[in-house]
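Data deposition worksheet. Section B asks for the primary sequence of the deposited chain exactly as it was used as input, without tags or linkers unless they were present during the calculation. Section C holds the resulting structure in token form. Section D is free text for depositor observations; keep each observation to a single sentence. Incomplete worksheets are returned to the depositor.
Section A, Depositor: J.P.
Section B:
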Amino acid sequence: MADKKIKLLHLHLPKTGGTALRRFFVDQLGEESVSPPLQGMMLEEALLQWRDTAVISGHFIARQADIIPPERLAVTVLRDPVDRFLSEYFYNKFDVDNLLVDACQRAGDLETYIEHLSQVPANAPMTQMEMLYPLGTTAQTRLSTDEKFSASKIAIDQFALVGVQEEMEDFCSMLCAKFRWPLAWAEQLNVTSRRLQPSDLTTGQRRAIENLLEPEIALYSYAHSRFKRDRRGFISSAGLAAEGHPDLSSAANEDSNETEHCPEPVKQDFGDLRCQINAVEIIGRVSGPGQVMTGEMMDVLFHVTAREALDQVSAGIAIKDEHGSLAFGTNSLLLGDIYSLAPGSYTIRFSTLNRLGPGAYSVDAALTPTSSHYDGCFHWRHAAASFNALAYATQHFEGKVLLDIDLGIESTSEGAAWCRKLPNEETISARAFSATGKALTTFRSSLDVMSSVDLAPLGTDLLLQVKLTNQSTETWHSRGRYPVKLSYRWLTETGRVVVADGARTDLPGDLAPGAYALTCMHVRLPDVPGRYCLAASLVQEHIAWFIDQDHTNGRILPITVLSANVLTALGET
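Section C:
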């Protein structure tokens, strides 16, 4: 009977007999013990999603510094690269109709395809090496072909067993001995229907393919040597057991994934810090800092400092759930923006409708010169901030993700008729939320304008740095029903009110008694030139202006708003 404690990871390299090997695992352990044949899934995601399954099998995409978890024995099978190249080419050409494959593999003949690849050698399909090398390096830079080859050999050494497709029966026998399964072999499945064999190639064709796949051919030779070494170990163990020695078959190659090449864990905070992430905030527009409801607008804020002039900076985020599974990731370059920054401080804002269901989430943050940190990294911070999705802001669904649904109905038979009605059997109760903040009973503040301005051009806005100090005994809440915000009024020199209710500036956060904050106040100038007084003040929305409660709470700045031609004349004089 199969050992219920078996934990296997099968990295299925395309066209290496992996479908047959997965069927072999099903025959030995049962369908419920083997994952579905997973296609194009990130390795980290597969290990999380199928963590309770005995065998995880599929075409996985590994990232540099991914590791094989120590609790799982990893196996893979490689194939002679020339034979695999031909099998994959003809399989994509004749046996698949609905997969996205290189158009050149279908449009032309083999000779044309080889010529196409020869013109762009970087596109050579060294699939086995490309899938293996990330498991053998912790480097967070783009690797050369030689570096990928070296990392692939290290990766092969991490596997408990490595097979070769040409000797699959022996590989299955080794697996049976390892896990004490009944002796069985994998039957061929998903075979390419029409293809040339390597022996059918012309000398020129074979030489061209070998030139394209030279690193992978060398890697296959390394893997083949490893397979033969492991097979000899199993044969030796079986011989010793037959002579009455302790059964060593289950221990054969037990330490094959213990190697001096085992990669170290990837750093969680790295980069050259030419542009540094000082802090990351997640703020629900209604719920406030660190929390957001499903269906609520949310902001992810990066507070960054550029230490030198940078020609291009891309900001990226990755939101992960409590298991570390990626829920969403993007960067500004993918969204159509990249920034050049002068030295200074900035806030980068990602705004979105939160579609994530209730749960705990973390955010990775990155600043890079391109869409990939492999091309260079200014700063990467793992789990730079966290937030909770506490409840549903909308009640028209349940589950983990909010989706937009377009509901419809149509008549499909003669005489069928329908009309749309609003349901009256059930009602959705209204809920009260975001009651954070009470009406203040005392309005005592210090507002210091730290910017100096006398003249300002018509049609522009001002950003004035101010220092705010809470001199009361009550906390100022920056969000909720009665938030405290920074605003202003415009007065004439005689005291007549021109603008009674200026633009609002949010506080950086809640401000406790005695605490202070530095921020920039956004001021929109009057539409008519003239001499004015800017009366800056805090205001608690729906309650009162601080300056109305005590004039010492505010600050008055005389500012002359000039038209463009007047400013030009002043400049000439």
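Section D:
The first strand starts at residue 8 and ends at 11.
DSSP finds twelve helices and 26 strands in the chain.
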